[in-house]
Amino acid sequence: MIHLQMQKQKQRSNPERFFSLIFLFLFLFLPLSINAREIYDLKRCLETGLKKNYDLLIIRNEQQISDNNMTWGNAGFLPTLDLNAGYSGALNNTSQEYADGSDVKNTGRLNQETTLGLNVSWTIFDGLYMQTNYQRLKEFQKMGELNTKLAVENLICDITAEYYNYVYQNLRLANLKYAVSLSKERLRIVEARYNIGSMSRLDLQQARVDFNADSSNLIKQYEVVNTSGITLNRLMALEDVSQLVVARDSFIAPNPALEETGIRNRMHQSNIRLLLSDKNKVVGELDYKALKSRNYPYLKLNTGYGYTKDFYGSGTVNRQDNLGLTYGLTLGFNIFDGFNRRREQKNAKLTIQNRQLQYEQLELSLRADLANMWMAYKNNLKLINLESENVDAAHENYEIAIERYRLGELSGIELREAQNSLLGAEERLLQAQYNTKLCEISLMQISGQAADLLLM
Hints:
Strand order of the largest sheet: 2-3-5-6
Number of domains: 3
Helix content: 55-70%
Low-confidence stretches: 1-21, 23-35
CATH architecture of the largest domain: Up-down Bundle
Order of helices and strands: HEHHHEEHHEHHEEHH
């Protein structure tokens, strides 16, 4: 009898010792490591990411390239100046026969020429192609700025969404810790009653199974928190990507004051994707104008100043020096090019039509996204109010249930149901708050107000 009781005590002590070690680690060592980590609020995360994120650094360099390309010279307005120097020689055997019947033969005669000169080429008129090209470069520069703004906007939204996901997962972690503590208290009560014989082994085993299940969920949640933290570190481009930061926020507070009309109006005025699509239309129209410039003649000025020195191996002149100015005008017009101009201009018109259709398609897609996101935003605000009431009711229900359980008036299954109801209500409330925040972020991005997240 004593041996059986010792076996039961050993069976009880092994899992209890194991989970005691887990809790000793989770609640003692983890707080120490948290204290050693840096605390980041949303603003600090955004400022760090905007300064160090690699994708953003790359897109800023690409914007600098488009800025560098926007010059008068790249458009073709300015002349080109070349410095040329050269040497050439010819070694010949010549035979000359004159009209009087005499002949002259020269063997191994070397003729040489050296040149040095400056040459200027300048296109004066090319059917307004240069003017059109300069406008195209301006538009490309503006598109470079918009692409940078779009990258900044996307990064702000990504970091904000991941920051609140990190907060959300940490809140879920706290709830799961609470669930384990509730299951541990239930297991303690069942073990005490089992030892005095007022509860069956079935009740004890079921309490252990529920405690183990909650502990397993807690361990899995630590992995989820770790993954979210590493993702946030990667977006901020932190050097030690595996060292998790501590989020300053301990709750998620969505903004309930967004206005649908204001968001819709701002979308048409400030949405960067729409602005880029509009720039694509303008570039298409300028491409068509550039092609039309080939319907006109062109005029080019060519001039040069140089020195030439010739050495002759035969004849009456041994050496000749030339120093002087050359100049000329070239007027040209392409009469026929195999109907390529006509074909390219027709295709350019179709490209303009396609870009207009793409703009309208994007606008329709954004309006649809706004409508869907607005409905989700309003519904989640309602869910927050509803689930807040449910959490209060579930807390009160569980307090009543645990008291009745301690008095022996409630079964373990009913207590577990009350516990699951409480945890489910808390999880649904967190989910509604997080979903509302995601909707808020998306609505601000659609309306071109993502940069305002820096001010939050």
